Amino acid sequence: MYTPRRQASPYLLIAMATAGLFACAHVPPQQTPAAPDEAPTGLPAQALPPLPLDPAVDKGTLANGLTYYVRENARPDKRAALRLVVNAGSVLEDDDQRGLAHLIEHMAFNGTRLFEKQEIVNTLEKAGVKFGQHTNAYTGFDETVYMLEVPTDDPALLEQGLLILQQFASAVTFDPVELDKERGVVVEEWRMGRGAETRVMDQQLPVLFKGSRYANRLPIGDKKVLETASLATVKRFYEDWYRPELMSVVAVGDFDGAKVKALIEKLFTPLTNPNPPRPRPSFPVPAHDEPRVSVVTDKELAQSTLSVVHTMPARGKATREDYRRMVLESLFHDMMNARLAELTKTAEPPFLAAFSGTERLVRASDVFVQMAIVDPAKSTEALAALARETERVDKHGFTPTELSRAQASLLRALQSLTEEKTKTLSSRLADEMVRNALTGEAMPGIEAELALHEEILPTVTLDELNRMARAGATRNRVLLLSAPAGTALPEAATLLTTFAAVEHEPLAPFVDRVAQGPLLPHAPLPGRIVDEASIGELDVTAWTLSNGARVLWKKTMFKNDEVLFTALSPGGHSRVNDVDYSTALYADGVVEQGGLGTFGPVELEKALAGKIVSVGPYIGELEEGLSGRSAPRDLLSLFELIHLSFTAPRVDADAFAAWKTQQRTALAHRSADPGAAFADALTELLHGRHPRRRPPSLERLERVDMERALALYRERFSDASGFTFVFVGNLDEATLRPWVEAYLASLPATPLPRRTSAKPKETWKDVGAKLATGRHELEVRRGVEPKAEVELLFTGKMPWSREAELDLAALASALGIKLREVVREELSGTYSINVSHNLSRRPRQEYQIGISFTCAPDRVEALTQVVRSELEAVRVHGLSEDYVTKVKMAARRQHELNLQQNGFWLRVLADAARFDDDPRIVLSAPLRIETLSTSRLQAMAKKVFDTRHHMRAVLRPEGSRSTAGAENRGKAAPRSGALEKEHVLTTR
Questions:
Q1: Which of 705, 578, 581, 600 is nearest to 648 (CA)?
Q2: Which of 38, 640, 772, 898 is the most buried (most CB within 10 A)?
């Protein structure tokens, strides 16, 4: 079932937290309508007939109760998305099992009857299936889901993928040695997740879930249980709940559906259920008449969040009546969110951002929620503003123009999805089947859903939407407020009386400000295409325009309803003097907040309702440009927005004041976050405190001037002759050509002869920011949680070449595998260890390669030494052929996927313009990948792991002491302000 994806409340994302191998908060947000528990007929909702199943899906049940879903789908080509869905999560854990559902999910990758220890991951990596990216799993309150993305060009790989799911389902071996190692990994995952937000959750979750089992069944579990639970206790959960009648297998991809169905039957039919099976209970979230309030402060919080939550029993998603509720609620929240967003653009916004939505909290409960990110000193005012908008709808309702826009936007979204029905990614279809398996969500197919929308939308009335403002009323209400410590916050009673006060306010009806007329009052005088060329091997066309601008475009059919666009020109804010730098840094955002032409920011958004089109400017250090997208039918609007971005940018005083308030509030408590403080200190060290590499600050923000921002923006976009415009997607030359001439060739530009003789083509400047050289040690002591973060960085000069870029990327990828095996799997030292890399081409040809991980504070030195030893081993001995094989296969597989994506081709053509490259070089990528070797990677390791240019940065908890020897320390470099108390900086 299609459900609009909105930005969910940060609190709810935490409250719905799940624990997985790489995603601790992975529950697809469900949009379900706020409506009575009974259908309009008066019959219980479950008695109504469900919507018919999409005929493209083969759904069935094996004799043992296991459900299967099979669907053929060719996007991406030669790939399949596989899922094992277990209808059992952390809520089913016994008291002595808290966290074991998640631990079992980890153990599935650590040995089964047919795959010992790490052999599943090892086997998949050799096939180019990356751990984490293509091999993953998550544990939620109510379910555990395993996910594989496998190639299908080799039938054996597809069968092996299904076999691995079968092993997860029935044959995890729980080797005691591997179990003890994995306990440590899960504890490190627990450690990595600790922070201000989780401490807030620890206090607010029991309020939200009071009286429910969910209150003390977070998937990450209890640290003590994880460390001490017996093998028998772990296996008891697996034996109780991993049984076919609670399982579903999903297979979607580029394959023969009949053969895949036969494989599923062959592999999963032998699975048996226990006799007798343990009953699978449901756990309600009890209703409550009295409102609940939780006000929490934490000294490490960087922002304040306010949520008004109304809990309700989970509603059905299977019938036509359910679907109508979903449509109604989508419209309601679309209109409410538009009003809330409009308030954030006023000169004195009551909140920094706000959201209204209905979410699936847990299997048994939905929530109607309004949340806002607020100035902690104005939390009462923010709550009043949220309540006021709900009350305004209740008293005066929405307007016909608001409803018309919401209907148009929702219908257009469904039309677009229908146009993409043959281009929908298999992973998206698989996720829909997972929801059907777990919650019974209808799955009629996108064409049927479009027909339902076309039937339902004209029948929706303002009256029934307006009544939704009272969804939940005061029953089951929970107020949640969190803020940085030291803030004077209102008492619970004050927050509760705010609602009553608003009910008696004389509220005026909402005034829907809508600008009339077209985006462009007059069509521009067209220019011409003066030169044409083609790159036949890539099906790319190049045009030179009469104003000197260039256009590169490529027609593709990877997506039916997508055109991607970018424009770029060298220069950026490197051309701006130091006095104007602060304003230039934010100029693109300031101007974007102002609208375009005769349309203010609010009016512009309304004018584009029902269209799929967007354009946004950027001004980077070395270039400026635009980026955007549109549907083919909205391409004219895209060109109008591009033209206006050059010729009619504007600023809006109210929007600027609101933007500055939002930025100021965010920066006010930035340093309270240990992670932000650490990142800022590392940035300063890495770039030698260069003034153009400093972290964001209030001082810099206050120097931003609105009118000067507009002037600087106009300077950067005043001459289109230096721009290259790139378009990729479902394009038609007969349509594209006249619009390029009308809207791009007509843009202002310096005349070609004058520019050639007297004004050379502008380019970027080197502002002198260099990566630090030498050896450095940085320690930041912040935070109260028992965790440390470690960054090892190597930097230096290196001539750029495609071979060097490939070798560095391959080395980083291979090291990521190697260090994961050693530091995570063997030593249980961390949950995740990351290897980052970069080889810059401009303004300086320099490399960076970094290794980062979190760990227990008392293991920093030991694990650092392990990592350094592994790096030295690669320098001296190289990597085994296995690692190079895995990296090469993954690169091949990724390149296959890249070639099917508009975004990849947009980057290829943009880079060709940026660096004056021949884009046909992309065709040689497979050959270059094949040249990778152990000797090449070892040679690169010898170059980059130069201990003369190396830094280590460590974030430790407050009050902790480094266990490094005296030889690793030196005299602390002088610091200023509060940083002097928190940082120890040693430079060698």
A1: 600
A2: 640
Count CA atoms within 13 Å of residue 238 on its CB side: 22
How far is it, in rounded angstroms, from Cα 68 to Cα 733? 45
Q: What is the pLDDT of residue 113?
A: 98
Residue type, 474: T
529-758 is classed CATH 3.30.830.10: yes
φ/ψ region of 362 (left if φ > 0, alpha if ψ in -120 to 50, else beta) reads beta
DSSP 8-state class, residue 153: S
Q: What is the DSSP letter of 944?
A: H
The answer to whether domain 292-503 and domain 775-987 are alike in fold is: yes
Question: By C-alpha distance, which of 120, 111, 283 is closest to 181?
Answer: 111
Bond into 843 cis (ω within 30):
yes
Task: Give the pLDDT confidence of 662-679 residue by residue, as tens digits.
Answer: 999 999 999 999 999 999
Name, in order, each residue with C-beta under 8 angstroms of 844's C-beta and a sequence gap of 6 or more.
Answer: 766, 770, 771, 797
Distance of CA 333 to the CA centre of its chain: 22
DSSP state of 439: H
Cβ 743 vs Cβ 642: under 8 Å? yes
Separation between Cα atoms, residue 579 and residue 572, nearest integer Å:
15
In the beta sheet, which residues pair with residue 563?
Answer: 630, 729
DSSP element (H, E) containing 866: helix 860-877
- DSSP class of residue 50 equals B
Q: What are phi and psi of 451, to 5 degrees?
A: -60, -40
Residues pairing with 691 in the sheet = none
Nearest to 689 by CA among 744, 767, 771: 771
417: tokens are 């999805």
- Report which of residues 759 and 30 the model is more confident about: 759
How confident is the model at residue 293, as a pLDDT?
Answer: 97
Q: What is the dihedral of CA 88, 92, 96, 100, to 10 degrees?
A: 20
3-state helix, strand, coil in the chain (%, to 5): 45, 20, 35
Nearest to 566 by CA among 555, 556, 552, 584: 552
Cis ω for the linkage preceding 33 (within 30 of 0): no
Q: What angle do CA 919, 547, 916 make, to 5 degrees?
A: 20
Element (H, E) at 10: helix 10-15
- Superfamily of structural domain 10-21+62-268: Metalloenzyme, LuxS/M16 peptidase-like (3.30.830.10)
* 850-905 pLDDT tens trace: 999 999 999 999 999 999 999 999 999 999 999 999 999 999 999 999 999 999 99
Q: Of the candidates 401, 608, 590, 370, which has an alpha carbon nearest to the alpha carbon of residue 510?
A: 401
Predicted local distance difference test score (pLDDT) of residue 754: 47
Q: Where are the domains of the chain?
A: 10-21+62-268, 292-503, 529-758, 775-987
- Distance from the Cα of residue 785 to its chain's centroid: 26
- pLDDT tens digits for 558-604? 999 999 999 999 999 999 999 999 999 999 999 999 999 999 999 99
Query: Which 8-state DSSP code applies to residue 699?
Result: H
Residue 276: is the preceding peptide bond cis (ω within 30°)?
yes
CA distance 586 to 584: 5
- Is residue 767 within 8 A of residue 664, CB to CB? The reply is no
pLDDT reading at 512 higher than 90: yes
Backbone angles phi, psi at 385, to 5 degrees: -65, -40
Q: According to CATH, what is the number of the domain 775-987?
A: 3.30.830.10
Sign, CA dihedral 264-265-268-273, equals: positive
Cβ distance 796 to 870 under 8 Å? Answer: no
Amino acid at 717: F
**Which residue is it, tokens 């690669």?**
874
- C-alpha 508/C-alpha 288 separation (Å) is 32
Instruction: Give the homologous superfamily in CATH for domain 292-503.
Output: Metalloenzyme, LuxS/M16 peptidase-like (3.30.830.10)
**Residues 824 and 117 sit within 8 Å (Cβ to Cβ):** no
Provide the phi-psi class of 228: left if phi over 0, else alpha when psi is between -120 and 50, else beta.
alpha
